[in-house]
Amino acid sequence: MSGSALDSSFCNSGVITIPISGGADVAYSVVIQPDGKIVAVGQADNGTNGNNVNTDFAAIRVIR
After folding, report:
1. Contact residues for 22 (Cβ-Cβ < 8 A; gap 6+)
2. pLDDT tens sequence across 46-63
3. How far apart are CA 56 and CA 54, in angstroms?
4. What is the distance between the terminal CA atoms of the chain, rounded to a whole angstrom?
């Protein structure tokens, strides 16, 4: 399988969307750990002013 092809067995479509806050959430780095779990880090708009100036650090770990 090519490194750019989606694995359709993952989440039924090869894509997962996890909203963290009510605003613009962005992942800046993603890694697959040796045990197959996915870790993503980035920022989440904390919703205090609506223009993404006030953001918080965000991290998620996806267990397939």
Report:
1. 45, 47
2. 766 655 567 788 898 988
3. 7
4. 19
**Residue range 2-13, pLDDT digits in tens:** 567 888 888 878
Handedness of CA 47, 53, 56, 62 (dihedral sign): positive
The Cα–Cα gap between 38 and 32 comes to 5
Run of H or E residues at 61: strand 55-62
What is the reported pTM?
Answer: 0.67
For the chain, the farthest-separated pair of C-alpha atoms sits apart, in whole angstroms, at 43
Give Cα separations from 5 to 15, 16, 51, 55 (angstroms): 11, 14, 34, 31
Helix (H) or strand (E) holding 38: strand 38-45
